[in-house]
Design a protein that fits this description.
By secondary structure, this protein is an all-alpha fold. The protein contains four helices and no strands. Residues 22-32 have a biased composition (Basic and acidic residues).
Length: 101
């Protein structure tokens, strides 16, 4: 019986490509760190503290992201239309002499 790890082992050309990509990225990060070009965290003065009240004031609750689009056809109208369409389809089949089933 094969081990459960054998079923989870990845194979194929994609594995080698992914491994090569990871190696290239690791080498690039190492070169940047050696050159001193590595990304540094922002300075303390670059970060501004904001209160929750300021953030909430900038968000309009009645804006376009919060409104739901109104359907031109109500649920009752849609159900009535579908019911009538089904009735017409059955009547058409009866008139043609074909079975509904």
């Amino acid at each position: 019986m094969p081990s459960p790890d054998a079923a989870a082992r990845h194979a194929g050309a994609g594995v080698a490509r992914r491994q090569a990509h990871h190696e290239r990225m690791r080498d690039e990060r190492a070169r940047e760190a050696a050159a001193g070009n590595a990304e540094l965290p922002p300075e303390d003065d670059a970060v501004e503290m904001a209160s929750a009240a300021q953030l909430l004031d900038s968000v309009a609750e009645a804006g376009p992201n919060y409104t739901q689009l109104r359907s031109k056809e109500t649920k009752a109208m849609r159900r009535k239309r579908k019911r009538e369409d089904a009735y017409r389809a059955i009547m058409r089949r009866i008139a043609q002499g074909t079975s509904c089933r």
